[in-house]
Amino acid sequence: MRGAFVKSAVWSLVLVAGLLVSLAAFAFASHALATNDAERHWRERPVVLLSDFGTVDRVEVTVLAGPKADHDKGYVGEPGLSLRLDVDGTVWLFDLGLGARDAQDTVRTNARLAGVDLSETDAVFLSHRHRDHMGGVSAEKSGRLDLTGMGRDDLRIVAPLSALDMPEHTVTEIAQPAVLGEGVASLGPIRRALFIGPVDEQAMILDVRDYGLIAVVGCGHQTLPKLAERVVEVFGRPVKAVIGDLHYPVPEGRLRVAGIDAQRWLASGGGPLSPAGQQDVEAFATWAFESGTDLFLVGHDTHDTVLALPTVNSLAVGQVLILPEVD
After folding, report:
1. Are residues 232 and 273 in the same domain?
2. What is the structure's pLDDT at 22?
């Protein structure tokens, strides 16, 4: 009887091991196919020229979600990103963070403490369909943003193609670079094959008079080289500043899913077998120094050691950045 039990247990372990190997093989094969598809999309990207799309005089950025927060003042920190952009009086809400943290609504709590009235929002810009930018898991699964109290009656939403399912709202779906207003544009989605699945991420581009082009970036899944190259292709000039984040979770990320460092092992580099590493950070530091680009990073998916680089300005929740800077 005991021998039969042991034999049955061994066979069960073999079957489980075989199943796990099969699942892993399927996951890696799917990732390889997605990587080929993303590279095809990049090679076949449309030629779009938007060198003259107007200018704005001033941009005021208030950080509403991010990991660095003054808890003594009541601010809530989280591994998500949300920015309020006042662009010459037009108010944009760029991404919605991860959502709830420590039983508090992150964006709404931080906005109240920062003196921001979310009901005055004119438009929402969604960089990509990930939970730490949409307001949580439910929003990511459903494609529906919780915008209660977050905008005017004629609120406009700008999102990558097929990222949202909100027919009751006016959603401008972006498939390629497009002008959104005077001095405001979308770089258009750039596809990236992550191990957790492909993602199309867009960045907002602002042309600020007497300053230059600003790229407001959610995660940087596009990769910095492609983002910088696409800006020059579309707008005819290099980017002067990057605000948001660029995804350098080295040596580790801030968001864990089922105990796994999801930002580093599943959403960076080439996947679990080749995640982002120190060589990527060194290449980034070299680019930042040589290009002279102003970097203002929230760091929701970038490690503190990267934020501490001399070329990086780290932004905290509640902090206000104004460009051009006022003397």
Report:
1. yes
2. 75
Give the chain's domain count.
2
Asked whether residue 101 falls in the same domain as residue 19, the answer is no
CA dist., res. 61 & res. 317, Å (int): 11
Nearest-angstrom CA–CA distance, 312 and 307? 6
H/E run at residue 9: helix 2-43
* DSSP, res 73: G
Intra-chain end-to-end CA distance of the chain, in Å: 85
State pLDDT tens for residues 60-86. 999 999 999 998 999 999 999 999 999
Domain range enclosing 145: 49-323
Max CA distance (Å), the chain = 85
Same domain, 252 and 288: yes
What's the CA gap between 105 and 230, in Å, rounded? 35
Instruction: Report pTM.
Output: 0.93
Residues 236 and 284 in one domain: yes
